[in-house]
Amino acid sequence: MTQTADQEREWWETAGPENIWGLGTWEEGIAGCVEQIESILAGLSHGACVLDLGCGPGRLLVPLARAHPQCTFTGLDIRFYDHAHINERNIGWMVGDGRRIGYADEMLDAIYSVALFQHLPHEATRGYLAESARTLKPGGQVRFQHVLGSEDSFLAHQVLSATHLTQWCDDAGLEIVATDEGVLHFQWVWVTARKP
Q1: What pLDDT does residue 30 have?
Q2: Structural domains of the chain in order of their starting residue, each with its CATH number
Q3: pLDDT digits over 32-61, tens only?
Q4: Would you tell me the crossing angle of helices 162-172 and 122-135 to the nearest 10 degrees?
Q5: What's the CA gap between 187 and 145, in Å, rounded?
Q6: In the list 33, 99, 140, 181, which could disulfide-bond 136, CB 3.0-4.6 Å?
């Protein structure tokens, strides 16, 4: 299925900010995801730039930015959210989709994405990974969560295998350095890829 950015935006407007975790309490889901993302943020130096791809209202962005005040965080989402109540000095916001990330080549130190790719058609996911590779500095890492499966299931809307993810990262110019399956949910896979 081909889905345009406008169709993707319409889907998110309809979906709303539901409890996406299914992993116990909301707080437990957030804490578990934050822990998974920490692996690419540990050791980032002062002034490092981090992108939350598909940030939503900032449910992961805010705790991560608070934990890493030496870094600059940007949240990118297809939907506009009112972030006036968030006063962290190291957070910025962008409206758009991952088909075109509003950064020049090799500007970002790290990118993460949770509960996004499984909602996208395959060609969009491949495009988001290509843009991630373009905007990452050499040695920069992207960590993303996806749902593996062969049927419509918890937060998944298409057939996806580990082979797909490996090929898409290779095509984008990213080297997979870690794959963690079954973390937080038995169908979830967390992938860490590095730009050589």
Answers
A1: 84
A2: 5-16+31-194 (3.40.50.150)
A3: 899 999 999 999 999 999 999 999 889 899
A4: 40
A5: 10
A6: 140
